[in-house]
């Protein structure tokens, strides 16, 4: 078992958990604790609480309770920081660097000085570090921070008139988006939703959870509800006050009234009106030996459709049968005007005509080669022409005999 407390080392800084190391400390006490940059003076802001020992989490320990000398050393360092701030500003002007000095911090043992600045881009401050080291005779470290960290260090008042959240109680900066302003029905004017740092206000983040939870309990826009004055339509919501603005129609005129959420009743529609069953049936699917799926009452479950590219089940399409599906194979019909000879009666004539055509083709002169030019193009005779003449004669003789 270990007792831990929360310690803050800067006025608006983050709170860290430390092991009391057997010391009796209470809130508002100043202690000297071990930090990554050495011993430092801090203030206890969260009282002690007991936690179980965990090997994975090892808390740093408090060295001692601060003495009068430690408090005096811390006060002297604060005075040196103001002087170092003025000197650093002069050096920045001499080197003509595009940077803005925000704060200066001395370590508790006076071994190092940290200078925090802001800039639009990267800055080459090597020559500035050499000049500061020659003046202060200690280790110099320059750190570039953002505009939100700058607002935390400087402090100030927000648009609401109170102290800015980051300088009062926020330990860490959470990401804030313009979507949060839309869900909270705020004006999207940048000057109205931005803080002193020029970024979106941090209060949009830690109020977002309340808006999301409250919106779930309230009716949606455009829904019909029952009010003490009758049935109306929801036209606006006030999440902070948890009230509903309802438009009630009276004849030809309408009136908008504000009602608390407790006085609003939703209209319960019947299943016949919505087209959905009041109590949807839950199926418990089982598989048999063959791999078929059935519910608990042994009724078959409709099979799944093939999923498309988006992974969803596509419903079956009731398409009409195509023309090709309705028609059978094409029917080959004979041409009545064409005279088709009967070849079975003239077998002998066909053989004679064929032998005469082959003999005539053999007696024909061969065609000239490609290298020898033809003397007369008309004397060219090919086998295809001979076959055509033979077939024509055969058809003429068959017509005469028929």
In short:
Helices cover 30% and strands 23% of the residues. The chain has helices at residues 68-95, 126-136, 147-154, 165-168, 178-183, 190-193, 203-206, 208-217, 271-274, 323-326, 347-363, 383-401; strands at 2-8, 15-19, 30-35, 38-51, 60-65, 100-106, 112-118, 139-144, 224-227, 230-238, 243-250, 253-260, 265-266, 286-287, 293-294.
Q: Give the helix tally.
A: 12
Q: Strand-and-helix sequence, N→C?
A: EEEEEHEEHEHHHHHHEEEEEHEEHHH
Mean pLDDT: 76
Chain oligomer state: single chain
Please describe the biggest sheet, giving its number of strands, its sense, and whether it closes into a barrel. Answer: 5 strands, mixed, barrel
Could you say what the CATH topology of the domain at 218-296 is called? SH3 type barrels
Write a structural description.
The chain is extended and about 145 Å long. Mean pLDDT is 76; it is low at 278-291, 293-308 and 370-381. The chain has helices at residues 68-95, 126-136, 147-154, 165-168, 178-183, 190-193, 203-206, 208-217, 271-274, 323-326, 347-363, 383-401, and strands spanning 2-8, 15-19, 30-35, 38-51, 60-65, 100-106, 112-118, 139-144, 224-227, 230-238, 243-250, 253-260, 265-266, 286-287, 293-294. The protein is of the alpha+beta class and 402 residues long. A five-stranded mixed barrel has the order 1-2-5-3-4.
């Amino acid at each position: 078992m270990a007792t831990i407390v929360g310690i803050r080392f800067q006025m608006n800084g983050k709170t860290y958990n430390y092991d009391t190391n057997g010391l009796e400390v209470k809130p508002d006490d100043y202690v000297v604790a071990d930090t990554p940059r050495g011993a430092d003076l801090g203030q206890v802001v969260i009282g002690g609480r007991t936690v179980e020992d965990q090997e994975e989490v090892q808390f740093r320990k408090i060295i001692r309770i601060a003495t009068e000398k430690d408090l005096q050393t811390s006060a002297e360092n604060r005075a040196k920081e103001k002087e170092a701030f003025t000197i650093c500003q002069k050096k920045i002007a001499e080197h003509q660097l595009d940077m803005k000095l925000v704060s200066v911090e001395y370590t508790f043992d006076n071994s190092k000085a940290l200078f925090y600045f802001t800039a639009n881009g990267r800055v080459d401050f090597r020559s500035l570090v050499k000049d500061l080291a020659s003046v202060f005779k200690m280790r110099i470290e320059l750190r570039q921070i953002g505009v939100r960290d700058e607002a935390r260090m400087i402090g100030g008042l927000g648009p609401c008139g109170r102290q800015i959240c980051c300088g009062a109680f926020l330990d860490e900066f959470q990401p804030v988006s313009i979507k949060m302003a839309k869900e909270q029905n705020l004006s999207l004017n940048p000057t109205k939703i931005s803080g002193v740092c020029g970024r979106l206000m941090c209060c949009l983040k830690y109020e977002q959870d309340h808006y999301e939870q409250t919106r779930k309990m309230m009716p949606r826009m455009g829904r019909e509800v029952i009010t003490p004055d009758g049935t109306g339509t929801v036209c606006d919501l006030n999440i902070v006050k948890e009230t509903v603005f309802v438009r009630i129609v009276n004849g030809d005129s309408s009136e908008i009234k504000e009602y608390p959420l407790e006085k609003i009743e939703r209209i319960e529609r019947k299943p016949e009106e919505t087209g959905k069953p009041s109590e949807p049936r839950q199926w418990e699917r089982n598989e048999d030996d063959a791999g078929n799926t059935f519910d608990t009452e042994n009724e078959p479950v409709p099979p799944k459709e093939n999923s498309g590219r988006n992974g969803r089940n596509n419903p079956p399409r009731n398409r009409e049968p195509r023309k090709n599906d309705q028609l059978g194979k094409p029917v080959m019909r004979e041409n009545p005007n064409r005279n088709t000879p009967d070849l079975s009666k003239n077998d002998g004539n066909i053989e004679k005509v064929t032998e005469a055509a082959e003999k005539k083709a053999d007696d024909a002169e061969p065609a000239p080669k490609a290298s020898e030019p033809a003397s007369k193009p008309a004397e060219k005779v090919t086998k295809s022409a001979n076959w055509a003449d033979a077939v024509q004669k055969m058809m003429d003789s068959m017509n005469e005999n028929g």
